[in-house]
Write a structure and sequence with these properties.
- The complex is a heterodimer of chains A (562) and B (364).
- Chain A is mainly alpha-helical.
- Chain A has a domain at 1-25 and 333-562: MetI-like (MetI-like fold, Orthogonal Bundle).
- Helices cover 71% and strands 1% of the residues of chain A.
- Chain A has 23 helices and two strands.
- In chain A, a hairpin with a 2-residue loop joins strand 1 (30-31) and strand 2.
- By secondary structure, chain B is α+β, with helices and mostly antiparallel strands.
- Chain B has nine helices and 20 strands.
- Chain B has helices spanning 42-50, 92-96, 98-102, 107-120, 136-148, 166-183, 194-200, 218-223, 228-233; strands at 4-13, 16-26, 31-35, 57-62, 65-66, 77-80, 154-158, 186-191, 203-208, 211-216, 238-247, 258-264, 267-273, 283-288, 294-295, 303-314, 318-324, 329-335, 345-350, 355-359.
- Classes of the chains: A mainly alpha (562), B alpha+beta (364).
Chain lengths: 562, 364
Amino acid sequence: MTRFLQALLLILLGFFLLYPIAYVVPSSALEGDTWTGYYYGLLWRDEMIRRCMVTSLGLACATTVGTTVVALPLAYVQTRRRLTGSSVITSLVLVPLVLPPFVGALGLERFLGPYGTLNLLCMHVGLLAPERPIDWLSGAGFWGVLFLQVLHLYPIMYLNVAAALANVDPVLEDAARNLGAGEWRVFRTVTLPLLLPGYFAGASLVFVWAFTDLGTPLVFNYSQTLSVQVFNHISDRETNPLGYALVVTALVITAVLFVLGRWLLGRRSYATVSRGAAAGMERRLSVKATVAVWSAFLLLTALALLPHLGVLLMASTSYWGLTAWPTHISGDAFRMVFSEPVAYRSIVNSLTYSCASTLLDLVCGLAIAWLAVRKKDVLSRLLDALAMIPLALPGLVLAFGYLTCYQRLPLFGLERWLDPAKSPTLLLIVAYAVRRLPYMTRAAVAGLEQTPVVLEEAAANLGAGRWRIVRTVTLPLLAANLLAGAIFTFAFALLEVSDSLMLAQQEAYFPITRAIFGFWLRPDDGPYVASAMGVLGMILLGVSLAAAGLILGRKMGELFKA
Amino acid sequence: MTRIRLVEVSKHYGRTVAVDRVSLTVESGELFFLLGTSGCGKTTLLRMLAGFVEPDRGEIYFDEQCMNGVPPQRRDTGMVFQSFALWPHRTVAGNVAYGLEVRGLGRALREHKLQEALRLVRLEGLAARRPAQLSGGQQQRVALARALVIEPRVLLLDEPLANLDARLRDELRGEILRIQRQTQVTTVYVTHDQKEALAVADRIGLLYGGRLVQVGPPRELYLRPATRQVAQFLGDCNLLTGQLVEIEDPSHGERQGRRCAVRTACGPVRGVTWCDSLEPGDSVCVVVRPEFVRLHESGAHDNCFVARVEETHFLGEVVRIVARTDSFLWQCLALGCDGPKPSSSVQLTFAAGQCVVLPAGDGV
């Protein structure tokens, strides 16, 4: 039974995770039947591509630094000081996650575009000449993308750092204070070294996300990123290996940085959860400090919610002309969502894809976690490691592989289902599932590790068979973790961007995000319908995340561990 | 050498009183034990001395210096935590030398003091190991060395042996005593293990419900408990309730206490009391330790009861005997391997001087 399960999972992961990656590598260096490094040379010589690489790397580094600057102090104050209203902060901090940055970009344009709210207000008070508006976004595409990515991704960094801080026994810090170390020294010599593995998990996630984010640069019409270049090469992928070479370059850069980062930061992980009573030093923030923390947090949240507000305002009107705010309220955009076949069908499609991928993740994640925690043999550990690869794997690498990798295989009639040009349904479901498999697996692993094996042994001792033990002991004890993991998987699949943009090519199969992008490009009412769909997505994602937060509580950060 | 003085120190957590108006002096160089059940406030009191918890009321002095508001970094106390709190990312040397680095000592001096501290706790040769590579006993020694190497004004030990097995506990208890005597550092040791406290303390302060119930040398607390709680916490005892009939010779003197007679359900009992407020007619309880109850001793006795043996338990060096008079189950200890047979009749005797009469209330 165990061997069968391991074999099945290995085949699945091999076919849908390793094979597409293995496919793009030779495709980038094969011309006919001969190996060539020509396209890599071409990439290197092409100044535009070089600039794109540097920009993407810079963007990813800056986003990582930006999210650190925002999240680290916030997490430190939250876990190490008694702060009035800290539970409110804990729940508000997740709010930016409910909107993919590219949908946020739609909203932000209304505020910061040439005739956006900011410029119009400036013109109104005479700070700006009407004939010379500033385009805050396309004039500074890099900064616009960076701004949105930091505001979107800092919650992920926060969850990781807060979880890591919660795992550092406060008594270890007290011991340093007791020996005379000041607060900065305590942080530098005790907290930080113990925090690094958790920080690395968050940083690598943010880095990979920012490095290969496709939607945000596309909406900002900022083509100088690697991801946009890859996207532009989709159409000539059959004839021009340059796209593959770009994908492989992205893969190599992330892999190298991931390994390097892990070696530098994440190699030593210490279990430091306290053995005795760990009261930690009681430190309530002074009124002045509390006001400062809250002001900074509210400013941050307000900034983070600016894109959401823009999308909401756009969705709730049918025309927003040259005014700072929409002049009338209308539900037309929402009505259009349900009357336009493309929009309506995309919602149904997204729900179908997300539910199916969640189910797939639930089964695979639980199986891998069970093998990794209870069996612990070489194959099980290999499976666990394989399941974590997508954390460091840019989504566009997998999507690019899926576009062509299965078409030359003898698939005994399954070709139709594995060709995105004919039907991307299965591939989208699998792509969503593979990308979120790490979250599901980690959720199940965390649950299993907290469930002593002796509870299962007690059932076995009383005569229960394997399936009965799983059904009556393991699953009920894991329910909360699995449910939270499933909600996460569902929520992120629902608003996934890069797989959706690359794999869904016909309207009939569009998921929500692809439809939003399509509507955004449509003149007249397009942006309003796109915004209304964004609002619906926000509501769905918001409710899902709140549910996951309620179920998982403070353990939410465990899901994002690399 | 620092003298610690606490004046009316209190700490509340919401409505819970953790420490209630504790006043106490720990003399310089003394090994002082704070003893009590879990939740009695002893760790809170220790954390107040370290500066991790600020008292709501009252003052803490190290010599004449008031420590209220002084952050833990500037108290110059060395603390051994219950969980040891060794930093897993630092080696033994890194852990022990940390306080010296903070104090900016030069490399040579640091190395010298480190070696000295490791020698003191007998851990020479393990400096390069990480905490995870050490046994529980070795980890405890590292924690002790880390606290001592800075030559603190006060050494604070928070149940330092609680995470160790019984044999290791005995061994390390002796080590701690040796090191404390050698360094002469004023030490406050928190524990719930009364045997640990009785064995090595210079003085013990017994906490109950956040209040300091009695302070004194181990022998005094054991033989002259001030309340029923102290008597029961420090060891097994026969506890009878009754009414004080008379107090003999009120001027008998403080040292031997005042002899008195008590009417109990078992009959009249003669004992001693150190409580000045007791008067004839008061409700009292009578405490007799099992080891003071003798079997079958001839001659005249202050107290003598005939009882029937119900159970005997062989405990190794002694036999515990449970014997019943009309309405009371007596516990007594007999040396050697042979005790009386169950159902046999025995004569129980004990001297009045070993029978302590206390007020019936909890005295708190």
